[in-house]
Specification:
Keywords: Heme, Iron, Metal-binding, Monooxygenase, Oxidoreductase. This is Cytochrome P450. Pathway: Antibiotic biosynthesis; vancomycin biosynthesis. It comes from Amycolatopsis orientalis (Nocardia orientalis). The structure is a single chain. The protein has a single domain, classed as Cytochrome p450, CATH 1.10.630.10. The protein is about 45% helix and about 10% strand. The chain is built from 17 helices and 14 strands. Strand 12 and strand 13 form a beta hairpin. The longest helix has 30 residues. It binds protoporphyrin IX containing FE. The site of protoporphyrin IX containing FE has 25 residues, from helix 12, helix 13 and helix 17.
Length: about 400
């Protein structure tokens, strides 16, 4: 029997989406020089112990494979360990308190309606272009204070990065890997230069936005450096949109492929939050997070030396049959769903409440406005061609009966 992942053409390396689960939850890969972690309990252990499993992974990448790394690491929350991580995280967490996020709901609803007005009356729409990409990118651009109208620029840069994102190796770099990596760095530089100009502007002309707050913020009596502000903003801009775009497309696809669940949620919007959580488990947008061991450690029956790189496949952990009953079934009614799609521990996704709110608001309005919404059987969905992500790239939906 073919699985949904095969029908949808999801990247062939994502075996967990094809109903397979490895016998060993932790395995060394001699090709990449990394330890793959697939098990839920093992992934949880790595995410909960930053003293042993550090987020400063760039230090293990050979310098010739990451020539510009110093440019991008300063202020990158995802690469930081305690105590510096906590200081910077506390600073930005003010921008994402439950109240601040809840207050964004009317704006998210208005934007969703505006974007859907543009396709109203059409026979069909492509979900990613019409809603799933623009909505989260406009929301995060408005929070930061960069013009949302520049989103076609970001999309160009970010698409090139996503298309070039492959399973990297610490041991060998082929010509093709090097070319892909150079291209990604070029695009990252475009993004950094773009943000840097806006940061310079906020130093001269402060405004009511997150960039100004970052420029003015002090950690232990010291202002952040230009590089720190820019990289911090860059993580927010990148993390703040690609994944939420995937969440919206993936959830729509999950519903369309499961008619009973689709009917239930159409009849009762209160089921949307649990549906979104199950979509995050079933098709986790961010498949992989990385950690570096600080000491020798035992994990999943393996002795892992100090200074090893771990590829923690949270998307595979979300299909671990030791944790989830019937993991290959999309079941929004499951009572136990401790998925790791937003990570865990000190790096738990700061934008999770915002992503959940965007998902609930946008999908609710979409279902309200188009009661006959379904995929176009003549146009199969396409997925982002990356082993590290699971996300719809194009999804054509029919709007009329
Ligand atoms: C961290 C996933 C939406 C900002 C993370 C991590 C994951 C994740 C797995 C943990 C990384 C690690 O442990 O190394 C997702 C998914 C999203 C989403 C699946 C949507 C469905 C967002 C949004 C924002 C955001 C909307 C910003 C507005 C961040 C930031 C971090 C982070 C800043 C770093 C936190 C830290 O290191 O302390 N996200 N994210 N994310 N996310 Fe998200």
């Amino acid at each position: 029997m073919t699985t949904l992942a095969e029908n949808w053409g999801i990247h062939e390396s994502q075996f967990w989406l094809r109903g397979e689960f490895p016998a060993d939850p932790v395995r060394f890969d001699p090709e990449t020089g990394m330890w793959n972690v697939y098990g839920h309990a093992e992934a949880l252990k790595t995410l909960s112990d930053p003293k042993v499993f550090s987020s400063d992974t760039v230090r293990l990448v050979p310098p010739e494979m990451a020539p510009d790394k110093d440019l991008f690491v300063d202020g990158n929350l995802l690469q930081m360990d305690p105590p510096d991580h906590k200081k910077l995280r506390t600073l930005v967490s003010h921008a994402f308190t439950p109240k601040v996020v809840a207050d964004l709901e009317p704006r998210i609803a208005a934007l969703t309606n505006e974007l859907l007005d543009a396709v109203d009356g059409e026979e069909s729409m492509e979900l990613v272009t019409s809603l799933a990409y623009p909505l989260p990118v406009i929301v995060i651009a408005e929070l930061l204070g960069v013009p949302a109208s520049d989103r076609t620029l970001f999309k160009q840069w970010v698409d090139t990065m996503l298309n070039n994102s492959q399973q990297r190796s610490l041991i060998k770099q082929t010509e093709e890997d090097k070319k892909a990596s150079d291209e990604s760095v070029e695009q990252l530089k475009n993004l950094v230069n773009y943000l840097s100009e806006h940061v310079d502007d906020r130093r001269r002309n402060p405004r009511e936005d997150l960039l100004t707050k970052l420029v003015e913020a002090e950690v232990d009596g010291e202002k952040l450096t230009q590089n720190e502000v820019v990289n911090f903003a860059n993580v927010l801009l990148l993390a703040g949109h690609i994944t939420t775009t995937m969440l919206l497309g993936n959830t729509m696809l999950c519903l369309d492929s499961h008619p009973d669940e689709y009917r239930r949620v159409r009849e009762d919007r209160a089921l949307l939050p649990a549906t979104i959580e199950e979509s995050l488990r079933f098709l986790s947008p961010f498949a992989l997070v990385a950690r570096a061991t600080m000491t020798e450690v035992e994990l999943g029956g393996q002795a892992i030396p100090a200074d090893s790189m771990l590829a923690i496949w949270i998307a595979a952990a979300n299909r671990d049959p030791r944790t989830f009953e019937d993991p290959g079934t999309f079941d929004p009614a499951r009572t136990h769903n401790p998925h790791l799609a937003f990570g865990r521990g000190i790096h738990f996704c700061i934008g999770a409440p915002l992503a959940r709110l965007e998902g609930k608001t946008a999908l609710g309005i979409l279902l309200d406005r188009f009661p006959d919404l379904r995929t176009d059987p003549g146009v199969p969905p396409s997925f982002i061609p990356s082993p590290n992500m699971t996300g719809v790239n194009e999804l054509r939906l029919l709007l009329k009966p």
